[in-house]
Design brief:
Chain B: It comes from Bradyrhizobium niftali. Chain B: Belongs to the acyl-CoA dehydrogenase family. The complex is a heterodimer of chains A (about 375) and B (about 375). Chain A is α+β, with helices and mostly antiparallel strands and about 375 residues long. Chain A contains 11 helices and 7 strands. Chain A has a 4-stranded antiparallel β-sheet with strand order 2-3-7-6, with no helix packed on it. Chain B has 3 domains: about 110 residues, Orthogonal Bundle (Butyryl-Coa Dehydrogenase, subunit A, domain 1); about 100 residues, Butyryl-CoA Dehydrogenase, subunit A, domain 2 (Beta Barrel); about 130 residues, Butyryl-CoA Dehydrogenase, subunit A, domain 3. In chain B, the strands form 3 sheets. Chain B has a 4-stranded antiparallel β-sheet, with no helix packed on it. The mean pLDDT of chain B is about 95. Chain B has about 375 residues and is an alpha+beta fold. The two termini of chain B are about 35 Å apart. The chains are: A alpha+beta (about 375), B alpha+beta (about 375). Chains A and B meet through helix 6, helix 7, helix 8, helix 9 and helix 10 of A and strand 8, helix 9, helix 10 and helix 11 of B. The complex binds flavin-adenine dinucleotide. Flavin-adenine dinucleotide sits at the interface of chains A and B.
Chain lengths: ~375, ~375
């Protein structure tokens, strides 16, 4: 949709080809089953193989675009084929950059190492949200206490992506409640830990292709080596867990915005193709509507790319990232909804893709900071609105 | 003189149905959504309230209440506040019965209406939609051709509520070359007649208890008096208007349920040290939801009241429906948003309400845009 370098386009084309052939059908299958594909489903082994053959752009200068723009371009294409399968994709996922930035060398080796060149699908997971609240990250109640051997975690987490199949879940817990949120640290809870109980895969409106998991931490023992950045992060200034976590969300928002644009483009294409095939295109009303959809889609994508470009250029992008996130998420919803109206009756019945996109899109204005929270972040920076 | 009052009788019926909605529909909504079916005993219970026969004249065995679209709107709003899908299923027979009361010939009423006055539930329906894009009733392509021995009807109807279960069905079809809606008439088509093929629609986004079906009519032969009304058949404008009003009323009920459910949550849910209701972005959202609910309701009531006075309400009905179609989705969406991640999970009704709202408002939504 945009002019990228030829080198980046090669990568996008690989994702497109894979997406059309494998991702879209797998996403539809999971949606119809109403449950994520099981970890041993051949799709995931196929994905690992695909990634081994096509690892995507790296920092070797072959692709001139910076990492954030590259990520946005790839995410957009991925989500065009299926946002849910994108999140379900094997890999260390969301916490990877956090571990890379804030982990000790041993932790990077121990927790990220197995993912490198792995021939079997593996997942990592990141647990922040709690039943009592997700937006207010200062109010998390999960506690960590010290023991002879390490730490005991107690609390509950919910909606955690891929947590039931992950090798480890990076869990946010407060080690020092007196210090408020700067007492928060991250802990690796490894698969099979008996203190992680009540694991429940939630039944969602959409994005049913990946697990959103609720679980309880009940005297959950983790070894001393599993605290992200080590017991005394002062020694490594980068590893204040909270800072590391929140710092990454500024590029993560751009990533979610890009996914929302991909989903929106998919809804737009469904509506456009339907309008052409059914003859609806002859109606001025339909053409107007499609034109407005296209305009909004373009705006969302440009906003996202600019936020990414700023990150790559090391220009502060907090306002840009938030506005891209909320605008793109709402664009995804608007276009899926408008797409349903253009497709009309066929969209209401018969498992039409646009119906699924409508259900998938709604989550994007909730995850990674709700629309309200993005606006608050922007307002704080623009007009100094207090928290 | 302007009045926002309803009669004592109407308010009694409404209260009865609000109780029914709260006690019977709401608790069963999720399971009905998942199984795509309304429990038979629930439909029986709704039947025993006499909804379908209420306005059937006593001469045919009915309740003899004056046929009132406003009463109908109050009933649908009440049921929609419990569950639009179950409410729609419970009210489906009226899609057949009401047009017969309003437009049927004496002969037709005598033949058809007594069937709906007994204790045993009788499902019936109306086949309106077709799969042409941005469906417009004046461009219905299903054709009824006059024959020496009656009519022959051919076409495909979509999203027919309770299509498989219905014992009686009205089908809208083009009966003459008279321009636009003047050429469209309603026909009484026995669902088991030779040439009728009925299959369930799969994968509907919402209102799944209404068990929508696709009805294919392959040259179905009908007797001369299958055309609803006397002689050349009744003008179907009033039928379309009352359908619009009814659908909009169901949606009003749905969005009131969303609003009523969101308010207590916003007062209880704490973020950043206080209930989210104290955050203006949430409080204003709730205030807007409340405004829209009321406006939608009044537009519907106004069209319904005018209908009952015998006015031509085609325009008013379209206005009400368009307004509702545009706003209902927004309210359902905001309601879910207030619940954050919890609204997206199928344990709570928010996501179901959003799906139901999308299904309910998809017809004609483009026209409203
Ligand atoms: C599909 C899905 C996947 C998810 N995956 C993950 C995951 O992998 N890991 C993870 O940790 N979490 C995950 N989440 C959780 C998600 O991050 C939270 O749902 C989100 O942060 C909102 O938190 P909440 O649901 O508790 O809503 P709340 O914080 O309770 O918010 C409720 C409502 O209040 C509003 N609100 C809150 N504070 C304010 C304010 N100050 N001003 C105005 N309005 C306000 C919100 O916008 C929202 O509308 C996921 C959620 C979903 C739906």
């Amino acid at each position: 949709m945009n002019k990228f370098s030829a080198a980046l386009n090669v990568h996008i084309e690989q994702v497109r080809e894979w997406g059309q052939r494998e991702v879209r059908p797998a996403g539809l299958e999971a949606d119809r089953n109403g449950a994520p594909l099981p970890p041993d489903h051949p799709y995931f082994a196929g994905y690992v193989d695909f990634r081994r053959r096509h690892p995507g752009p790296v920092d070797d200068g072959a692709v001139p675009e910076g990492p954030a723009v590259r990520m946005a371009a790839i995410n957009e294409e991925n989500a065009y084929w299926d946002r849910g399968m994108g999140v379900a994709a094997p890999g260390p996922g969301l916490p990877a950059p956090i571990v890379a930035a804030a982990g000790t060398p041993e932790q990077r080796e121990h927790f990220l190492g197995p993912f490198r060149g792995s021939e079997i699908p593996r997942w990592g997971s990141f647990a922040l949200t709690e039943p009592s609240g997700g937006s207010d990250t200062t109010a998390f109640r999960t506690r960590a206490t010290r023991t002879d051997r390490g730490f005991l975690l107690n609390g509950a987490k919910c909606f955690i992506g891929n947590a039931a199949r992950a090798d480890w879940v990076l869990v946010q817990a407060n080690l020092d409640p007196d210090k408020g949120r700067s007492g928060q640290r991250s802990f690796f809870v490894e698969r099979g830990n008996r203190g992680m109980t009540g694991i429940k895969v939630e039944n969602k409106m959409g994005l049913r292709a990946y697990e959103s998991v609720s679980f309880i931490l009940e005297d959950c023992e983790v070894p001393r080596d599993n605290i992200l950045g080590g017991e005394r992060p002062e020694q490594t200034s980068r590893s204040s867990a909270y800072g590391a976590t929140m710092g990454t969300l500024n590029t993560t928002r751009v990533g979610v915005a890009a996914s929302a644009v991909g989903l929106a483009r998919s809804a737009y294409d469904e509506a456009l193709n339907f309008a052409k095939q059914s003859g609806a295109f002859r109606s001025i009303r339909v053409r107007d509507r499609l034109e407005a959809m296209h305009r909004q889609l373009r705006a969302a994508w440009l906003m996202t790319l600019r936020a990414a470009w700023k990150a790559d250029s090391r220009i502060p992008n907090i306002v840009d990232a938030s506005m891209a996130k909320v605008f793109a998420a709402e664009t995804a919803q608007d276009l899926a909804s408008a797409g349903m109206e253009i497709v009309g009756l066929e969209a209401g019945a018969g498992h039409h893709l646009v119906e699924k996109l409508f259900r998938d899109a709604k989550a994007l204005n909730i995850v990674e900071g709700t629309g309200q929270i993005q606006r608050i972040i922007m307002a704080r920076h623009l007009v100094g609105l207090p928290r | 003189m302007i009045s926002f009052d309803v009669t004592d009788e109407q308010s009694q019926i409404r209260d009865m149905l609000l109780t029914f909605a709260k006690e019977e529909l709401t608790p069963r909504a999720r399971q009905a959504d998942e199984t795509c079916a309304a429990p038979a005993e629930l439909l029986d219970e709704a039947w025993s309230l006499g909804l379908a026969s209420l306005a059937i004249p006593e001469a045919y065995g009915g309740g003899g209440a004056p046929r009132s679209t406003l009463t109908g709107a109050l009933m649908l709003e009440a049921m929609g506040s419990g569950c639009a899908g179950l409410g729609g299923a419970a009210a489906a027979s009226s899609l057949f019965v009401n047009p017969l009361i309003d437009l049927g010939s004496e002969e037709q009423k005598k033949r058809e209406l007594p069937k709906f006055c007994g204790n045993a539930r009788r499902a019936a329906t109306l086949a309106l939609h077709e799969d042409s894009f941005a469906f417009d009733p004046s461009r219905i392509v299903t054709r009824a051709e006059p024959r020496a021995d009656g009519w022959r009807i051919t076409g495909v109807k979509r999203l027919v509520p309770l299509g498989e279960e219905a014992g009686d069905m009205l089908v809208l079809a083009r009966a003459s070359d008279a321009p636009g809606i003047d050429g469209i008439k309603a026909f009484i088509v026995p669902p088991r007649a030779p040439g009728v093929a009925i299959t369930r629609e799969s994968g509907t986004i919402g209102l799944t208890p209404m068990r929508f079906a696709r009805v294919e009519l392959a040259g179905v032969s009908l007797p001369p008096d299958a055309i609803l009304g006397e002689g050349d058949g009744a003008d179907i404008r009033p039928l379309l208007a009352s359908l619009r009003i009814g659908g909009a009323a169901l949606a009003v009920g749905l969005v009131r349920a969303v609003t009523d459910f969101a308010i207590p949550y916003a007062r209880e849910r704490v973020a950043f040290g206080e209930p989210i209701a104290k955050k203006q972005s949430i409080a204003f959202m709730l205030a807007d939801m409340h405004i829209e609910c009321d406006v939608m309701r009044w537009l519907v009531w106004k069209a319904a009241a005018a209908f009952d006075r015998g006015a031509d309400v085609s325009k008013m009905a379209v206005l009400a429906q368009n307004y509702v179609n545009r706003r209902a989705i927004r309210i359902a969406d905001d309601g879910l948003q207030i619940f954050g991640g919890h609204g997206y999970i199928r344990d709570l009704p928010l996501e179901m309400w959003l799906r139901n709202a999308r299904m309910l408002t998809i017809h004609g939504a483009l026209a409203a845009a």
